[in-house]
Write a structure and sequence with these properties.
Elements (H helix, E strand, L loop, with lengths): L2 H11 L3 H7 L3 H12 L4 H7 L3 H12 L4 H7 L3 H12 L4 H7 L3 H12 L4 H7 L3 H12 L4 H7 L5 H7 L1 H4 L5
Helix pairs in contact: 1-2, 1-3, 3-4, 3-5, 5-6, 5-7, 7-8, 7-9, 9-10, 9-11, 11-12
Length: 175
Amino acid sequence: MTPEKAYEHAKKYGPLDITREIVCQDPEYAYYYALDIDKCPREDTREAVCKSSQYAYYYAKEIDKCPREDTREAACKNSYFAHYYARDIDKCPREDTREATCKDSYWAIGYALDVDKCQRDDTREAACRDPFSAYKYAEYIDGCPREDTWLAVKGSKYEEEYKKMFNELLKDQII
């Protein structure tokens, strides 16, 4: 029996240890089983969803309804889900979620905006690995030109936009 068929069987006839065991072979079906059939968290379904950043995040948000080390650790394997885990589940910044998010320049901006709600050297440094992200970090988070964001956009297609954005502030400075 496939995880999908085990899930469908349980929807029709109710939970059984054997159908739960089968769905736990697939993080997606383990999540839906916990959500729709068990209607509560269980160690076996949680362990199964932790094989996927996406379903670990969904499980923490919709089933556990609270942060846990195991679901956070699984979510942190993906910058996107680490960002949303910090924002929606932890509801506060943490070093582990920030570090995971900063592996992706774009999501470092999201973390600074949505979670830290301020500028930080580590999120800026991550954003500066990509010209577009550096440009957006300067625009949305710093709100002013800085040498590090300028160097990240200099020579890229975002250089002129950066100059335009900060034209008034740059009049008296040489960049």
